[in-house]
Amino acid sequence: MLKALVSLGLSRRAAEVYVYLATKGPQKTADIASTLKLKKQQELYSALKNLQEKRIVRANLNYSAHYSALPFEKAIDLLLEVKRKDAQSIEQNREEILSEWHSIISDNSATQLDR
Prior knowledge:
Radius of gyration: 20 Å
Largest sheet: 3 strands, antiparallel
Low-confidence stretches: none
Oligomer: single chain
Order of helices and strands: HHEHHEEHH
CATH topology of one domain: Arc Repressor Mutant, subunit A
């Protein structure tokens, strides 16, 4: 499960936090940190921020220290959609990317010939 989430763009820590929330339901940050044995609060807050940016974890508006996860199926769909859009963007810009690459290679070859 963690490998799949990491392959979809989550850090290992964010994947662990997501899985914990998805299996345990809404949790306080202190409980998340304790259960996952996180010594640095910054690690947890960074993971939660990343998960919120990806819209697969939400903070409870009534209790700011409570977080909950989207169901796994919806989370996978959102993460897959981001990957698809990234791939489409690269594909659409393929020629420009290759042109820049060839320019770099040409510049390096010319620089080496000048030496």
